[in-house]
Each structure stands twice: as structure tokens, then as C-alpha cells.
Design a protein that fits this description.
By secondary structure, this protein is an alpha/beta fold. The protein contains 15 helices and twelve strands. It has an eight-stranded parallel sheet. Strands 1-12 form a two-stranded antiparallel sheet. 49% of the residues are buried.
Length: 385
């Protein structure tokens, strides 16, 4: 599909629903239980307004940031996500290439369906900003060799997701016949077969990709299987052990309050991601934007604080950064774009967000993302009295 048709995250979502089987779309689009937390994430951004400043100096606003010693062209990273290789043959390697082409970072998930070695090799020589996200249902015996492999392949930042001691109750997946580990039940297989038949373009692309993979198998093999129904539990002692073993920043993903932010710092974390897994884990958890100020205050800029869950426009990036986020990560938006047009779709999505971010800053009268603070926001009417 022509990537130029992606004009917004909402349009990418609409196109993705037509590009892949319904079960795959629901896996990306869905959340836990009644999907209340997913809705809260987006509502929290809508509840925050702006305080623009008129007659400001003209010029292209500054979008670049520095994160863990690397200069990035915009404060939008691509979050670690599972089953990336099922959406399009370009898969995780294509996502990494798209991120590098736009001078940002794609975080490779252990359950993306591609090994860290394969994705690193796909970028060839030159500068390769590589981050690896860890799941390890098997505990230390599993995570030690995994992070050693990532380090040997040149990954610089280790991201550890701590909000998945068990899988959330993702009811769309259950309706589509998937078990907690994403194995397909017999009835689900029949339903999925019909969905695949209705998406012949996707089926043809993925069939060709499967044949190519048989001729050129991933030499690193799979990293870990899809997270089992028991999840991937980590303790703060695990985080401390990883920080000792990993030669670089360890970023803890899944923090939703000041107390856990303090625990992460005490365990040696070099960064924090305020995240509720896009509403895919505990339904009823708070919106990430609502708890971001508490985490930022606790951390006091000693390490970078990032945010994911609910970012859909460049204006959302501005709101998060004005509240103290060093950058944001997006997940569903780039997965929709990948499903639509592969690597080119992800590049297009990043371009759309860049243009939206530029326009928002220009209309605000703000010269750059490094100037953002709470003075640029209107968070609601003043208290009575």
C-alpha cells in the first residue's frame, strides 16, 4: 500500500484494519478487560491544553534531543512490541531501519520474533543506535545469556519491562481463539483461516517471507518464546543484578508512581519509562500522563524519564515533555504503519509525527522541545476561591 496514505495515526489505524487479518489487528489494537486504561491514556492527553505565546520569533523549532549520549533528531522512539514479524515481512529489522533513517531509536523486544543478532546485522556498518528490551519467563538462567547476546551484538541500552508478572486478560485475543501464549485454539484456527483468506495480499507477502526464512534462517535463533501465561516476573534484586552485569544504562519500563521510581533508582536504573503497557496489563491502572509529574519529581532529573501509552499526535509529545519527559515512545502507531506499508510506512509515520510536532511548537510560539515546561500548558480551570 502507498505509505503516503498515512496522514495521521488514526488513518494508519484505519488502513491497518484492512491490511492484516482481524486477529492480528486486534492483538495490536486491543487492551485488557474493558480497555478502560487504554481509554484513560488518550483521555489524559485530551484533558491538557496549551498556553500559546503570540508574536514569537519565527524559525524552525528545535526537535533534537540527546539521550544516553546519543543525538536524536526528534524525541519519539519506537517502543518494544511483540509479534512485529507477523505484521509485515519487513518485521523488526525493517522497523530498526526506519528508525535509523529518521535518526531515532527502535527498541527491539525479546518477543518481536527476530534475534538481536539478526536485527543488528540488518543495519550493516556505521552508526547503529541499538536498544534491547528483555523478557525472561525462565528467570536468571534465561536472562543472563540473553543480555550477554545483546551486548555482544552491539546493543547499548537494556530496557527491562517490570509490569508483566502475568499477562493481562486481553479479551479480544480470547475471542479470536488465542491462548495466553498466543497459541491458536482449534476453533480459533478455523476463524483465522477465514480472516487470512480475506487478506490475500498479506498472506502472499508473509508466505514469500516464510520461504525466504527457510532458505536463510536466523543464525541467532529465537530469543525467547512468546511470554507464557505465567508472564515474566522480575524483582528489584533482578534489576540490580542486571545493572551490575550490563555495561551501559538499564532502563526500567512499567513504572507508575514515585515509590517504584525510587526502587528503580536504588536498584541502579539509568532511566525510567512511565508506562502501563498501553492498557494491556492491569485494567484500571492510571493514565501515564497523570502520574508522570510524580515520577519526574521523585527522580529530580537524576536519570531520564520517558513516557509511553496514549501518544497519538505530535501535540501529545509536547504535553509529555512539558511535564518533564525526556522523550516518548510509541507502539501501536508504528505497528499500524508497519502493517500498512512495511519499513516505508514506519518512516512515513515518523515523518507525520515530526511535522505535527513542528507545527504544534510553531503555533505555541515555542522555539524548541528543550524550552518546554509547565508554563506552556493549560491543565484546567483554576481552583475556586
Amino acid at each position: 500500500m502507498d505509505p503516503s496514505r498515512i496522514t495521521s495515526v488514526a488513518e494508519a489505524r484505519r488502513l491497518a484494519a484492512r491490511a492484516v487479518p482481524r486477529a492480528l489487528f486486534d492483538y495490536v489494537d486491543g487492551a485488557a478487560d474493558d480497555e478502560l486504561t487504554r481509554a484513560r491514556n488518550e483521555a489524559a492527553f485530551r484533558a491538557v491544553g496549551f498556553r500559546p505565546r503570540m508574536a514569537a520569533a519565527a524559525g524552525e523549532p528545535r526537535l533534537g534531543i540527546e539521550l544516553f549520549g546519543r543525538a536524536l533528531s526528534l524525541p519519539v522512539l519506537l517502543a518494544p512490541c511483540g509479534l512485529v514479524t507477523a505484521l509485515h515481512p519487513d518485521g523488526a529489522a525493517g522497523v530498526a531501519r526506519a528508525a535509523r533513517s529518521r535518526r531515532t531509536v527502535a527498541v527491539l523486544s525479546a518477543v518481536a520474533g527476530a534475534s538481536p543478532e539478526r536485527v543488528a546485522a540488518s543495519l550493516g556498518g556505521g552508526d547503529r543506535p541499538l536498544w534491547y528490551q528483555l523478557y525472561a519467563p525462565g528467570g536468571r538462567a534465561e536472562w543472563e545469556p540473553l543480555i550477554d547476546r545483546a551486548a555482544a551484538a552491539g546493543y547499548e541500552v537494556l530496557m527491562v519491562t517490570v509490569d508483566t508478572p502475568a499477562l493481562g486478560n486481553r479479551e479480544r485475543d480470547r475471542r479470536n481463539g488465542f491462548t495466553g501464549s498466543m497459541r491458536v485454539r482449534p476453533r480459533g484456527a478455523v476463524r483465522l483461516a477465514g480472516q487470512v483468506a480475506a487478506r490475500p495480499g498479506w498472506a502472499l507477502r508473509m508466505g514469500r517471507s516464510a520461504l525466504a526464512d527457510r532458505r536463510n534462517p536466523d543464525p541467532g535463533g529465537p530469543t525467547v518464546g512468546l511470554v507464557a501465561a505465567g508472564g515474566s516476573p522480575f524483582t528489584w534484586d533482578d534489576i540490580a543484578a542486571m545493572a551490575d552485569r550490563w555495561d551501559g544504562p538499564v532502563v526500567v519500563k512499567g513504572v507508575l508512581g514515585a515509590a517504584d521510581a525510587r526502587c528503580a533508582l536504588d536498584a541502579g536504573a539509568g532511566g525510567i519509562v512511565v508506562s502501563n503497557h498501553g492498557g494491556r496489563q492491569l485494567d484500571g491502572a492510571p493514565a501515564t500522563l497523570d502520574v508522570l509529574p510524580d515520577v519526574v519529581a521523585e527522580v529530580a532529573r537524576s536519570v531520564p524519564v520517558l513516557l509511553d501509552s496514549g501518544v497519538r499526535r505530535g501535540s501529545d509529545v509536547v504535553k509529555a515533555m512539558a511535564m518533564g519527559a525526556a522523550a516518548v515512545l510509541v507502539g501501536r502507531p508504528y505497528l499500524y504503519a508497519l502493517a500498512v506499508a512495511g519499513t516505508a510506512g514506519v518512516e512515513r509515520l515518523l515523518d507525520v509525527l515530526r511535522a505535527d510536532l513542528t507545527r504544534t511548537l510553531t503555533l505555541l510560539g515555542c522555539p524548541g522541545v528543550d524550552d518546554l515546561d509547565l508554563d506552556w500548558l493549560d491543565t484546567g480551570p483554576p481552583a475556586a476561591g
